[in-house]
Amino acid sequence: MQKGILYLIPVPLADNAASKSFTPFLMDTINSINTYIVENEKTARKFLKEAGLKIPQSELLIHDYGKHKRGNSLKPFFQELNKGINVGLMSEAGCPGVADPGADIVAEAHKQQIKVVPLVGPNAMLQALMASGFSGQSYAFTGYLPIDKGDRSKRIKDLEQLSQRFKQTQLFMETPFRNNQLLEEVLKNCQPSTLLCIASNINAEDEYIKTLSIAEWKKEKVDLHKKPTVFLIYRNH
User: Is 143 helix (H, G, I), strand (E, B) or coil?
Assistant: First the structure.
């Protein structure tokens, strides 16, 4: 029996960003499938509605892959795919599998020889990189930095050195309520001439993307508290 296809369905990064986020192909795809694997059922249903879902929501079969389900067997998520039924994978924000636990589902799909189709959509890391003015030829996304202050300071310095050595853009992030503390650490630990881009609330109405040197950032006042933010550093000399 032919297996189903796993579609990776991006969702908006911010409220009121639906029109920036959904392509006609994505709309066609969600109206051709009725089974989903999602991080949060409530928000997934909201995204599907915003994207132009015409299938009645009551007809959808939604598998919850929330925090409390992780670590369990992935078998239940693949019953439909193994019966030849196409399934959509959705994360909480942006692209499934990128800085997202859905990567485990994708990895299992490959193991089970299920075709994986990524759809075009918003991705905070790539959009931040595009808008930073930094190298797009060589870049690395580190994700979250260590919570311990000493370890975090060392990591920031390591990333700065890697950037200088390889002319490589370094991207990282923090839990939104700790953004201001992370910015403070970056300003304290990086060289004055190192460039820092702050990309905050991407795709939102109050989107904020700015690149300055560390020395220039020290003169700025910016409040990133509870705003989803990507930090990028680049040192090319």
Answer: strand
The pTM (predicted TM-score) of the whole model is 0.92
**Which DSSP string do the residues of 83-139 spell out, in sequence order?**
TT--EEEE-SSBSTTSSSTTHHHHHHHHHTT-EEEEPP---HHHHHHHHH-S-SSSE
pLDDT at 180 over 70: yes
Q: For the sheet with 61-64, list strands across it.
A: 61-64, 35-38, 87-90, 5-9, 115-118
CATH of residue 200: 3.30.950.10
Quote the domain boundaries for residue 29. Answer: 5-118
21 neighbors 122 (Cβ within 8 angstroms):
yes
For residue 119, pLDDT over 80 is answered with yes
Nearest 5°: the CA angle 150, 99, 234 is 55
Angle CA 94–203–208, to nearest 5: 120
CATH assignment at residue 33: 3.40.1010.10
